[in-house]
Write a structure and sequence with these properties.
heterotrimer, B: about 270 residues, 2 domains, 6-stranded parallel β-sheet, about 55% helix, about 10% strand, elongated, C: about 210 residues, 7 helices, about 0% strand, extended
């Protein structure tokens, strides 16, 4: 429950209100002045006729202050003291104001609705996938995986798998680990050496676990060598020089670059090309896609990296999520078209639906 | 072997040698090509010019030595501008190696304007945590920053006491080579707290920021060495970035010539097959 | 149990963090903050695991005199040296700064510089007008490369404006489309991971 008073005294208007969409821990005091001032002091009291204590000196140019030094449930009165060329001006008192908790951040309602729509689309197709077979187009890079690993086996050379340079909190690294599991199953089954250099220790631990479990799954636990999955360095270019060294020494026949990459993408791809390896890349970094497309034989573009695990498993439920994602994309395309039309006819209301409130 | 056959099978090292010469020769014999100013860079410059004296600019050093060649000149030019306009610089970094680079930049620029550490500028050090840290920083700086990079209590510095949350930050300027970096500041800081964000990125990352420029989430952008050279020109500081522009120009021309040669070979191979 | 417990934790934490994004109630925010702080603590711990792995592999390489074992000696010496310099002198210490400025910076910059050479060789090999799309890519690349450097202005004054248009309109439109697709794919994958549909990153039987 809060009250707002807008009081105009000598060119300074002050307004205090419960900070919207917060946890009830602050009150916002805002002011407007048509008289230039050199400093603003914000005063506060729990009684209208009580002693007003200064709580903050706001910087010139600011016209609001978020008072977090409150006690929850307490009503406060505020006043502004401004130093101007004509001397000190004290505004009228505004209040009582109390901070309150908002259970839902209404500023993010539009994001909430979008997520619900997307989740509904994905869940719809997941349930549909359980009843009928869904068509998913062929992804050339994934279809070429078997051929690439077979090539390495025939040549008696190892396979190099680079899971990107970021840690497992990045979804691309998780997606890469999912694909690594499939690659490890095949290389273990064929008895081909697999090297997985990582740039993060947690990624190394996860990769070791994934590869070990893959070897066990295909009945080849003896194939697993922990030292083939190793940590090099967190440093970006230290890592890429380490991987380049592995490529030039071990001369793998097949290179996989799947995950997060930055500037090192072209360095890796060109070095791999110089060794004659077949290269399959995939990343959701839009800046690096052109380099991989130019230098590698096959490239997973953006969302195809996230779809890879579902595609390789061919599980109906996972494939259903891909269709749901496509439905979500279609919905957003229509929203964009509607936005373009609204922009052309000058309907600002449609645009306002997508503004997020701080 | 036909001439075009030889070119098609050219040793990569000859290409590398030609690129090397294209970069080195203009450094020895500069061409002095003029640097044009683009709108994204001008936006950053205009913002610094317009901010009242004493404004607090958060400078985030989000790069490592690998990107130093492109982003360090931009850092120097920007700090030069901030100090000249008597703004206060609150430095931090989302990348650990960036802090040392930031300190080196301070040592180079601050004495020129008689700026004092703790009053006019401060370095609060490397802050891990990416998105989480930024969300916390915007709400309450004290939850993230207890000391400066040397381990001294942050409240012992006047500038350290001035910055309590995002509302005390007038602008965030991030020098970003990757992740975490400029996108984190845009998504987790500007979107949550409304603080204006400007950035300098490597040339590779610059195209990716244009959607945020056009939507207004990013105030301005210094893209690559060219962006740094433009900023140097604006602030009247002829330094490494400007010096590198001649080399970059010639190197780009050489690459374009390679592309043209490659396509001539393609046409010739088609005709030979027919 | 081996997989049920981690999957339950993933489900619980995923849904909790999602709710915390929309609910500003203090308890939710504090708990969300705590979870994320725990994650930072785990990362910090894993740095030691990584260093231990690195040292162990290189020590074994030296012990068994495997190929190029001599380089492992240098690696261990510099690793130890940099650690000691940082611990003893701090980030502003003379030795640490010297190593940083005269080794790390030039070495990293050198590796980054390889891009200039590799871009040239990749461009020569890959930028061929094999089909209409490749031709369009080729023309845009040439225009942007020339227009973004001062020599472009010298050739034609309109180059920068043309390049800005290419960057602001077709490039931005394409990037937006790619980013939309990537983010939708990310949400879909996140939902699969949270609901336990996607499990292959954990290894073992599906």
């Amino acid at each position: 429950m809060f009250l707002i008073f807008l009081i105009l005294v000598k060119g300074i208007s002050v307004n205090a209100y419960d900070t919207p969409n917060d946890d009830g821990s602050s009150v916002t005091v805002s002011w407007e002045s048509d008289i230039p001032y050199s400093s603003i002091l914000i005063l506060r009291s729990e009684q209208k006729d009580g002693v007003f204590e200064p709580i903050c000196e706001a910087r010139v140019g600011r016209n609001d202050y978020q008072d977090t030094l409150i006690v929850r449930g307490t009503f406060y009165y505020y006043q502004i003291k401004a130093m101007t060329d004509e001397g000190e001006i004290i505004s009228a008192i505004t209040g009582p104001t109390v901070a309150s908790v908002q259970v839902f951040n209404t500023g993010r309602l539009n994001i909430f609705v979008a997520i619900i729509i997307l989740f509904a689309a994905i869940l719809f197709y997941i349930s549909r996938a359980k009843r009928e077979k869904l068509f998913i187009r062929k992804i050339p890079a994934l279809a070429a995986m078997d051929e690439a690993i077979g090539r390495a086996t025939e040549m008696g050379k190892p396979v190099l798998y680079v899971p990107g340079i970021m840690d497992i909190d990045d979804p691309q690294t998780i997606a890469s680990m999912s694909i690594l599991a499939k690659v490890a199953e095949k290389t273990a089954a064929y008895g081909t050496t697999l090297y997985v250099p990582t740039a993060r220790a947690m990624a190394m631990s996860m990769a070791q676990q994934v590869v070990k479990e893959a070897a066990t799954k295909v009945g080849r636990p003896d194939w697993y060598i922990a030292d083939n999955i190793r940590y090099l360095t967190d440093d970006q270019f230290g890592y890429v020089s380490g991987v380049d060294g592995i490529m030039l020494r071990e001369k793998p026949a097949t290179n996989f670059y799947l995950g997060v990459f930055y500037a090192e993408s072209l360095i890796l791809a060109e070095t791999g090309h110089s060794t004659g390896a077949i290269q399959i890349a995939g990343t959701a970094m839009p800046d690096q896609l052109p380099f991989f497309v130019a230098a590698c034989d096959y490239t997973l573009l953006g969302e195809e990296l996230y779809a890879a695990s579902a595609y390789l498993s061919q599980e109906p439920v996972q494939l259903g999520s891909l269709k749901g994602q496509d439905l979500g994309k279609l919905i957003f395309i229509f929203v964009i078209l509607a936005g373009v039309i609204a922009g052309i006819v000058g309907f600002q209301g449609f645009y306002n639906l997508f503004i997020s409130v701080h | 072997m036909h001439f075009f056959d030889r070119i098609a099978k050219i040793d990569r090292r000859i290409i590398f040698l030609l690129i090397g010469l294209a970069v080195i020769i203009p450094l020895i014999a500069p061409l002095g090509l003029p640097v044009d100013i683009t709108a994204p860079v001008k936006s950053v410059y205009d913002r610094i010019e317009a901010m009242p004296e004493g404004s607090i600019v958060v400078v985030s050093i989000d790069y490592d030595p690998g990107s130093e060649a492109e982003l360090y000149p931009a850092t120097l030019a920007f700090l030069d501008h901030c100090f000249r306009k008597n703004h206060k610089v609150y430095m931090m970094g989302l990348w650990a190696p960036g802090i040392t680079l930031g300190n080196i930049a301070f040592q180079e620029i601050a004495p020129k304007y008689n700026k004092e550490y703790g009053i006019d500028y401060i370095n609060v050090g490397y802050k891990p945590g990416g998105a989480v840290m930024l969300l916390t920083l915007g709400r309450n700086v004290a939850d993230v920053v207890a000391t400066d990079y040397q381990g001294l209590p942050i409240d012992s510095f006047p500038l350290g006491r001035m910055v309590k949350n995002s509302r005390d930050m007038d602008l965030v300027m991030t020098f970003s080579a990757g992740d975490p970096g400029i996108l984190h500041w845009i998504i987790y800081f500007n979107a949550r707290f409304g603080t204006p964000i400007a950035g300098a990125t490597t040339a590779i990352s610059a195209p990716r920021q244009y959607p945020y420029l056009s939507s207004g989430q990013l105030l301005g952008l210094l893209g690559g060495l060219k962006g740094a050279a433009e900023y140097e020109t604006l602030v009247g500081r002829v330094d490494r970035a400007t010096a590198g522009m001649d080399s970059q120009s010639i190197a780009h021309v050489v690459i374009v010539l390679f592309i043209i040669m490659g396509n001539i070979i393609l046409v010739w191979e088609h005709r030979r097959k027919k | 149990m081996k997989r049920t417990l981690p999957l339950t934790i993933v489900l619980g934490c995923g849904i909790f963090m999602l709710i915390a994004f929309f609910v500003p109630v203090r308890w939710f925010q504090d708990a969300s903050q705590t979870l994320q702080t725990w994650y930072l603590g785990v990362i910090a711990f894993f740095v030691f695991i990584g260093i231990f792995n690195l040292v162990r592999i290189n020590v074994l390489k030296i012990q068994h005199k495997r190929r190029d074992w001599q380089f492992s000696i240098f690696l261990l010496i510099f690793l130890a040296g940099m650690l000691l310099a940082g611990f003893i002198g701090g980030p502003d210490g003379t030795v640490f700064l010297y190593l940083f400025q005269h080794f790390q910076i030039p070495l990293s910059a050198t590796m980054f510089s390889l891009l200039a050479f590799f871009v040239a060789s990749a461009a020569f090999r890959a930028f061929r007008a094999r089909n209409p799309e490749a031709t369009l890519l080729l023309i845009a690349a040439v225009l942007v490369m020339i227009g973004r450097v001062p020599i472009g202005v010298w050739i034609w004054k309109g180059f920068p404006s043309l390049v800005e248009w290419i960057m602001s309109v077709p490039n931005t439109a394409a990037k937006r489309g790619i980013i939309f697709g990537i983010d939708l794919g990310l949400i879909s994958m996140a939902l699969r991971v949270i609901l336990g549909i996607e499990r292959s990153y954990m290894g073992g039987k599906d």
